[in-house]
Each structure stands twice: as C-alpha cells, then as structure tokens.
C-alpha cells in the first residue's frame, strides 16, 4: 500500500488529528512509502482579495470536510492510495501584510516539500493569488521548462488584471504574473467556466492577445465536455497545471466563496468535467477561494475536497488512458 490510512471501521473518521483525506503528515510517511507522489499543503492567506475576505480559513475547512473522503474512484476504477504515496505537508508560513513577501514565502516553502523531482504539489487556498506561488514552485521543480507549463484553469474570472489598487499580486492577477515570468505557456492555457459581467470589454484583452483559450460557461452549455477533451489531446502529453477556483460553481452549490457569480456549474457537472480531462499530464494543482464563513453545511468545503481528489485521480488514471489509446490506435 502506497498510502497508509487509518482503518475507518476501527478508527472513526471524526477522531484523531485532522489532515487532508486522513493522509499521513509528510514527516510521518513511512520509509517504504517514499518518495511521496503528491504533497498537499495549505496556504491560509487572503490578503489578496478584492471583495470579501475569509478564505484564509479555507485550508482548515477543506481538511475538516475531507475526513469522509474515500480512496476508490468509482468511474476511473482506481484506488488512489494504492497508486500513490500521499501526504499532508501542513501550512506555509504566512506574511499577511505583504503580498510580494507572501508569494515568495509560499514559493520557497513549496519548493522544499518532499522529493524535488518526484513529489507533485497541491495547494489548498486561500485566495487565488496563492496560485502564483504554487505555479512558480511547480515550474521550477520541473526544471523551468522553456515555454512554461500548460494550464487548465476553472473560474468565473480570468484573473489576468494588470493590477488592482496599485497591487500586482492580488487574486485578480496570478496568471498575468506567471505568464510574464515564463512559467505558463498562454497558447496552452484554457480558462473554463468564465461567466458574468465584466468591468469592461478590455478585461479580455490580455488573455486574447496572449493566446489563452477562453471557454465560457455558455460555450460549455452548447459544446459540452468534448471541447475540454479535445484540448487535452492537443497538449500531446505536455506537463500541465490545474488551477480550480471554487467560484466557477453556481453559488447555489458552492455558497462559501468571496466573489460569487450567479450561474455556473452544478457540483455534479464540474466533477464530470474534471473527469473528462482524463489523460492530462498533471504535475501540480491548486483549489482556492473557499470561504467557510459564507458556507452552509460545509457543502463548499466538501466539494473542494472532492475536487482535489479528482485532480489527483487524473494523474493516477493517466497510464490506463494511455494504454487504452495505444490499443485503440493499434500501436
């Protein structure tokens, strides 16, 4: 067994210390399970928000909600804990009064987790500004590939604003910064679920000029998941990062977020859409913008925990998808 979990039928899920999915703490991973394949860590920071704060408590809420997260994926037919060694690496240090210092602190923390060449990083936010730190850490750990990483971005907003109130590192700007730094290949980036009114039509300019594919929620309603599947095929195995802002989901299903936008995916639709990305070469991810104070019955935090699980399962199912494709193509 790659990941040793407490037996839920002997040790109740509501007892013991809380880690994501009840995975072992990184420092407690047994030698036989090293190196760790995925290190999950929290970034309890929300000083980059432009509307409602509170997502600094998101990592705790997601961990709490993940206690009933199970290990076997019914649709992919894989046991995540048998496939990978998984660990919770705790939280980054926090520098709440300086966005630039916070991004550097989080990046350095993430870069030092687990095995630099083997361990992949999944960050739990926190606001979306923290994606910049995890993208930079992931890119550097992958050898800073020329051209940058491919990105699958779920959101209501593009998050490519040059600056807000004179600040360049808010949750409105992680992708423009990472593109400028060379960590993202904009021609291999897709933003899925974009919806709602904009401040102006020029909010679209940067993404369009850089070659980012904008796949709005209305387009998804017409074209369905086939577009996402086609985008994955076009990547041809290129290393990809998944960034998931919970506000892409209709606030009816995910009310606990700071910049809610009416409409959007249902919980079921977004989980199915993530599964449609099977075959994606995932090398890093984040799940952000969970605001527990606005949540009801922990539904947003629970969805976020399952989204994180689904993203790691994309990595686990990839060899199976590749084998099926080779058999289909007669290779």
Could you give the topology of this structure?
Blueprint: E1 38-43, H1 58-65, E2 72-73, E3 78-79, H2 80-83, E4 86-91, H3 99-111, E5 120-125, H4 130-141, E6 149-154, H5 174-180, E7 184-194, H6 205-210, E8 213-216, H7 217-223, H8 226-235, E9 239-245, H9 267-275, E10 281-288, H10 299-329
Parallel strand pairs: 1-4, 1-5, 5-10, 6-7, 6-9, 7-8, 9-10
Antiparallel strand pairs: 2-3
Helix pairs in contact: 1-10, 3-4, 4-5, 9-10
General description of the model:
With 331 residues, this protein is α/β, with parallel strands linked by helices. Helices cover 32% and strands 18% of the residues. The strands form two sheets. An eight-stranded parallel β-sheet has the order 4-1-5-10-9-6-7-8, with helices on both faces. The protein has a two-stranded antiparallel sheet with strand order 2-3. Helix 5 links the parallel strand 6 (149-154) and strand 7 (184-194). It is globular and about 55 Å long. The protein starts with 37 loop residues before the first strand and ends with a helix. The mean pLDDT is 94.
């Amino acid at each position: 067994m790659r990941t040793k979990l407490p037996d839920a039928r002997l040790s109740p899920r509501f007892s013991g210390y809380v880690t994501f999915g009840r995975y072992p703490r990184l420092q407690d991973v047994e030698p036989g399970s090293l190196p760790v394949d995925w290190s999950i860590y929290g970034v309890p920071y929300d000083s980059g928000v432009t509307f409602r704060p509170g997502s600094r408590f998101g990592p705790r809420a997601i961990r709490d909600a993940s206690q009933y997260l199970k290990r076997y994926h019914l649709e992919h037919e894989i046991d995540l804990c048998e496939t990978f060694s998984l660990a919770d690496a705790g939280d980054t240090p926090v520098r709440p009064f300086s966005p630039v210092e916070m991004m550097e602190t989080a990046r350095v923390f993430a870069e030092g987790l687990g095995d630099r060449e083997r361990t992949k990083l999944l960050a739990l936010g926190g606001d979306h500004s923290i994606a910049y730190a995890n993208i930079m850490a992931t890119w550097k750990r992958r050898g800073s590939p020329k051209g940058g990483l491919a990105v699958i971005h779920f959101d209501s907003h593009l998050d490519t604003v040059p600056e807000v109130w004179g600040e360049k590192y808010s949750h409105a700007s992680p992708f423009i910064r990472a593109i400028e730094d060379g960590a993202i290949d904009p021609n291999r980036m897709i933003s899925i679920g974009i919806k709602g009114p904009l401040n102006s039509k020029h909010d679209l300019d940067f993404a369009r000029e850089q070659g980012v594919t904008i796949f709005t929620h209305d387009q998804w309603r017409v074209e369905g998941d086939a577009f996402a599947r086609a985008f994955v095929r076009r990547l041809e195995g290129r290393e990809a990062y998944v960034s998931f802002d919970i506000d892409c989901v209709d606030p009816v299903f995910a009310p606990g977020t700071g910049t809610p936008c009416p409409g959007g995916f249902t919980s079921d639709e977004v989980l199915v859409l993530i599964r449609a990305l099977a075959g994606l070469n995932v090398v890093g991810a984040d799940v952000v913008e969970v605001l527990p104070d606005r949540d009801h019955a922990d539904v947003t935090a629970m969805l976020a925990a399952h989204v994180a699980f689904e993203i790691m399962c994309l990595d686990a199912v990839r060899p199976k998808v590749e084998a099926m494709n080779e058999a289909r193509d007669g290779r």
